[in-house]
């Protein structure tokens, strides 16, 4: 049933019956679903759909992550049969050749191993707060020593 629905969407996309915004929303939905699912067959279907509807997905960091995803409910062994060759092929590429689809789909979650986004202002505020805390602690200790000596 799900496969028929995906084929229906692909036909509508190829026949230009869906607007660009609808295509982007549909691809974003399937990409987010593939990244969050623990069901191997649902991931395989999403992978097939995205590969056919979104050319940039083929050599993307998100597909490399999916190909190496662990802890999947996979009673039929689809993960190794389908994704092991894909993972081997994508790992041969230099990281600069892998597309990050978050440029097109900003709502996607960060991938494991990505550095957290830090703004320089937040870092400066955190460093400043730390310095103030250290100075306050030092002054409190100094005050105690003065009181004990007196």
Percent helix range: 55-70%
| Biggest pleated sheet | none
Mean pLDDT: 79
How many domain units?
2
Strand content: under 5%
Q: First CA to last CA: what distance? A: 85 Å
Work out the helix count.
Answer: 6
Anisotropy-based shape:
elongated
Residue stretches low in confidence (pLDDT < 50, at least 5 long) are none
The overall strand count is 0
Topology as a string of helices (H) and strands (E): HHHHHH
Structural class: mainly alpha
Topology summary:
Elements: H1 2-14, H2 20-36, H3 40-53, H4 61-67, H5 78-92, H6 120-149
Helix pairs in contact: 1-3, 2-3, 4-5
Give a written overview of the molecule.
The chain is mostly helical. It has two domains: 2-111; 118-150. It is 64% helix and 0% strand. It has helices at residues 2-14, 20-36, 40-53, 61-67, 78-92, 120-149. Helix 2 (20-36) runs antiparallel to helix 3 and helix 4 (61-67) crosses helix 5 (78-92). The model has no long low-confidence stretch (mean pLDDT 79).
Keywords:
elongated, 150 residues, mainly alpha, 64% helix
């Amino acid at each position: 049933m799900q496969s028929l629905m995906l084929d229906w969407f692909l036909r509508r996309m190829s026949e230009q019956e869906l607007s660009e915004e609808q295509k982007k929303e549909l691809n974003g939905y399937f990409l987010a679903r593939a990244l969050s699912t623990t069901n191997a067959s649902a991931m395989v279907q999403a992978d097939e759909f995205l590969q056919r509807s979104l050319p940039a997905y083929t050599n993307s960091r998100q597909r490399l992550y999916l190909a190496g995803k662990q802890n999947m409910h996979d009673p039929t062994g689809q993960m190794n049969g389908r994704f092991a060759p894909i993972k081997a092929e994508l790992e041969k590429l230099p990281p600069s050749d892998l597309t990050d689809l978050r440029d097109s789909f900003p709502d996607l979650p960060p991938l494991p191993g990505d550095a957290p986004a830090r703004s320089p202002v937040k870092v400066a505020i955190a460093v400043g707060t730390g310095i103030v805390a250290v100075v306050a602690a030092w002054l409190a200790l100094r005050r105690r020593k003065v009181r004990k000596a007196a």
